[in-house]
Amino acid sequence: MGNKRLNQAVEQLKSTGVRMTPQRYAILEYLLSSLGHPTADEIYRSLEDRFPNMSVATVYNNLRVFKEAELIRELTYGDASSRFDANMYDHYHIICRECSKIVDFQYPSLRDVEEEAAQKTGFIVENHRMEVYGLCKSCHEAMQLK
Questions:
Q1: CB within 8 A of 68, min separation 6: which ones?
Q2: For the whole model, what pTM was predicted?
Q3: What is the model's pLDDT at position 39?
Q4: Which residues are annotated as a binding site for Zn(2+)?
Q5: Which residues does the annotation place in the binding site?
Q6: Known binding site for Fe cation: residues?
Q7: CATH number for the 3-85 domain, one of 3.40.50.300, 1.10.10.10, 3.30.70.270, 1.10.287.1490?
């Protein structure tokens, strides 16, 4: 992960009046360097050694700040836990129905679908999401061994 992206995120937060604390910086850095889609608990567990006084509530509060600043997305599908994604570019997700692993994939944007939906229904379309479900390679291989 480039420091450029982290520096841009820090500047974006500062420009909205958000004060950068060491915990806030560490959470943001973790999210931007994470290839997965961590839960708040996973973020907390990965940082608790560096910040023994930090609580899970601190992580949740900072995730809310980042979400409001449009630096991250909250993913509320897959298992019951919200997961957080720092990739704000248009992309889609494939989710393992067994282990809930979420993987990004690129696909041409479905903006045409939004326009078609708006025309056919009269709705003002704000956004969309597409999710594909299946078994990840590891879970599929494990099932084959049973």
A1: none
A2: 0.74
A3: 92
A4: 96, 99, 136, 139
A5: 96, 99, 128, 136, 139
A6: 128
A7: 1.10.10.10
